[in-house]
Amino acid sequence: MKFLLVFDFDHTIIDENSDTWIVKCAPERKLPNGLRNSYQPGHWTEYMSRVFVYLGDNGVKEDEMKRTMTTIPFTVGMIDLLGFIGENKELFDCIIVSDSNTVFIDWILKAADFRKVFDEVFTNPAAFSSTGYLTVQHFHAHHCAKCPKNLCKRKVLKEFIDKQLERGVSYTQIVYIGDGGNDLCPVMFLKKNDIAMPRQGYTLEKKVSELAQSLSPVQCSVLVWSSATDIMSYLKLLIKE
């Protein structure tokens, strides 16, 4: 009996967006209008690449970025929740699927000593170049019209589950915890026995309830959370059953 926990990162594990938090490193803690207005829907990774070039051009170094990123607050109750999952790893496999990047997520999880809670982290690969600039790439290519072009979370989840099955690991239930519009695609992949946990007041909750109103609800159960304490209560019930 094993459960798979799938976490988004921004506004789910941490209470902010890591990509917008990094702007605190910019001169006067803001971006020039031209750069800010250069974002095109579905092309967030390209936009962030330009932000990282701007930061590099303005002499922002790796250690300053790291210091800034590790001040991001975790969502209320999340530290307790991740501690609880860490103590029960024999029951839970735990992955992150995020549109952030490997550098930011590694910094934040390692600073709080949570890296070992997660079996795998699926996010855009990032690294510092020889000139000290942070660079980010697309996670993968896909053909899903619903998702941003760098990441389809459904594809990631499906490939992970298939790989686990090949290793002889199947899950009693998948619990998907997220908040954003790009979490809807993987939620629609979940089956009747699984559960989606959208964060209260965020885009995923709105989109799931719109589907229910248009009489094409998701197959899985839905349980809305406002603090990670709600998620922990559910997991405690799950392992009692």
UniProtKB/TrEMBL annotation:
Active site: 8 (nucleophile), 10 (proton donor)
Cofactor(s) in the UniProt record: Mg(2+)
Pfam families tied to this protein: Put_Phosphatase
Binding-site residues, Mg(2+): 8, 10, 179
UniProtKB keywords: Hydrolase, Magnesium, Metal-binding
GO molecular function, one term: metal ion binding
Binding-site list for substrate: 19, 99
Annotated family: Belongs to the HAD-like hydrolase superfamily. PHOSPHO family.
Protein name, UniProt field: PHOP2 phosphatase
Source organism (scientific name): Ptilorrhoa leucosticta
Organism lineage: Eukaryota, Metazoa, Chordata, Craniata, Vertebrata
